[in-house]
Protein: Protoheme IX farnesyltransferase
Amino acid sequence: MTATQGAQLRGAGQDGGRGPRTVGSTLRAYVALTKPRIIELLLITTIPTMFLAAGGFPSLWLIIATMVGGYLAAGGANALNMYLERDIDAKMKRTRKRPIPSGAVTPRAALIFGLTISAVSALWLGLLVNWVSAALAVGAILLYVVFYTMILKRRTSQNIVWGGIAGCMPVLIGWSAVTGTVSWTAVLLFLVIFFWTPPHYWPLAEKFQDDYANAGVPMLPVVSSRSNVARQMLLHTALMIASSLAIIPLGETGWVYGVAAAASGAWFGFLVVRYALRVRQGLSGKALAPMKVFHGSITYLTVLFVALAIDPFVTL
Structure:
């Protein structure tokens, strides 16, 4: 055995020279493949939608089964996304510490993991919830992995617009889990998240545009002017607010949701208008403050869906 071979064997249990891998560190790496912080945002839209569809509390088992299935579906899609984008992740400062580029998980293991939990999610939802929800989950996985990651992301600046469809699917899954079908209210909630995604994500892309440029990813803030990005953010925000308000006449919601939709929509609309005005003034960097819009978008969606969850339980 040569010295080099001996060193390789001794390093087989090491994590990039940072010490031996433990069961805990391995588990954390696989959990990280599912992008749990993103899934938190997706799942926070599912339970309120289930409350609204049920007109109150669905069964606890149905909530748990839907949430577990939804987590597995989103986690599987995210793991496959990391597998396919491992070359991009290795080039970007924001992502180079993810499990695959850091060496915590091999590409092959990530691929097997992603495919496995994606398949499990479909069977779980189909057998324990219903097959409509399972079909929607499979559709979400395919939209994110194939339509967004493989086709759109590296080819068009509108990648996040159409790729964001996958992130809208949890409301349809939540609604169908309770009712076995999809209603116009669920479709409008889908549109709220669809139009919310660009003004949510483009400010983040603005902050990390050098990263995206180095990785060759044509995010809109990388390939277009700030003024064009701001105009498109304004358009999507207006359509988002309109979709949220269009739910009210359908009669599924009450005054709690109506007040929250109007107030939070006006507040987030103000943030986007202020951002657009700062762009028009030629500001940049901290003065432009794109991350205030990013964080504001998360607050907006949280307030809207918390109100949606409370609404069925409050009557005048």
